[in-house]
Amino acid sequence: MEANGASSKKDFANKIFICKKEAQETKHWLRMLVNCFPEQTEKLRQYWQEVQELTMIFQKITSSLRNVAV
Question: Counting runs of H as helices and runs of E as strands, what totals does the chain give?
Fold first, then answer.
């Protein structure tokens, strides 16, 4: 929602890049949680996969924006 309210294309690109970074950080914390709560591994892997898909979506958006003058 934050990116959709961006004030410019450059602002939109920056917000999407931040989303990608936050998703990558979330994957890091999910990996750490697996180490702390091995009994929750399967559920945490499902969450990790969902975040991985979001990361790939954000990467595609940032790549597409780079190919278009921002």
Answer: 2, 0
pLDDT in tens, 7-66: 999 999 999 999 999 999 999 999 999 999 999 999 999 999 999 999 999 999 999 988
Is the four-CA dihedral 10, 2, 54, 35 of positive or negative sign?
Answer: positive
Q: Environment class of residue 26 by beta-carbon count within 10 Å: exposed (0-12), middle (13-18) or buried (19+)?
A: middle
How far is CA 51 from its chain centroid? 6
Q: Provide the sign of the torsion angle of the four alpha carbons 59, 54, 30, 49, taken in this order.
A: negative
Name the CA radius of gyration of the chain, rounded: 15
State the pTM of this model.
0.83
What is the amino acid identity at position 25?
E
